[in-house]
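Put briefly, the fold is written as integer tokens. The lines below illustrate.
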Amino acid sequence: MNLHEYQAKQILRSGNINTPRGIAAASADAAVEAAGELGGEAWVVKAQIHAGGRGKAGGVKLVKSLKDVRAMAESLLGKPLVTNQNAPDGQPVNQVLVEETLPIARELYLSLLVDRETERVAIVASAAGGMDIEEVAYASPEKVLTETCNPLLGVQDFQCRALAFALDLTGEAYKDFCRLLPQLYRVFVGNDLNLLEINPLVVTTDNRVLPLDCKMSVDDNALYRRKSLAELRDDSQIDAKEAAANAANVNYVALSGNIGCMVNGAGLAMATMDLIQLEGGTPANFLDVGGGATPETVAQGFKIILLDPNVRAVLINIFGGIVRCDVIAEGIIQAVKEVGVQVPVVVRLEGTNAELGRKLLAESGLAILAAESLTQAAKLAVEKAA
């Protein structure tokens, strides 16, 4: 689950980390009031969306009058902002962050993330801040510095010093940086984050170190114990179908095809999508209803799939193990009746009571096509969607 910049900075401040003073605003009037409250003669107005590349897309701007604050807020609020990370549709800007300006001397890059290869939290830093770190890593890999943290000890002093020296920090900036890293590590672990990215981390002209921007992503699997963070979810930033899937507690990713897929198990779902493409079709989604699929989750799956107007056929691929195939078949029949499915439905059942499940589908009197193999199911789905 991604957080907005203003939310991420609130979490940083709760961890005793200094950030630029800023106020989130949902209207142009509120943005002007925020600028007046912050004081000064210049402000930065930032669109709040769950995507990077805002500056290049015109979503971050330095303004030097309250009139320009209003104009910038009005140009952003209520409209989609398209960046290189969310093209082609962009994401709606419902709030802007009005922030004080800082006298910037240097821009650095800093992030904490879960390194799945070492199964540890990794700290990534670079003197090339304010740039796409992927481009830096590709063009100049020697500029990207990495330290991995022992899960029992956290980030150690020698690691802080090594990174500070490598980033050419001195004096108060050196001390700020060495204080900042352990604080960030505690925020990362204490909030079950899987990404904490600061780009840029700035060194000011008076040699202070501050996070000018901040991106946070929370591990979805930990939200059950992070209720306050779960409440920060902004479903306006994701596809409406994905928001419905979140509410139904199923895994869904919208794609651009016309064959809706409902599968129990992520690996089986990916194999199903591969086979659809092998047969010349294109999947409309990835939908994993889980190993313990029930008639209720099947019904929810249908509703989510059919929110996509491009879907012209639905392929259900269920392996009966934890849940018997006859129970799933009853759920499919119930769901088709309840939802009023108007597109062809192809079902492949395998596993416990598969024969009984296929018999129930065949005798249902509904327009459900039962397939005995995944290949046959994919061919039928592609044929019906054509």
In short: Residues 215 and 286 are 26 Å apart (CA to CA). The chain has a mean pLDDT of 92.
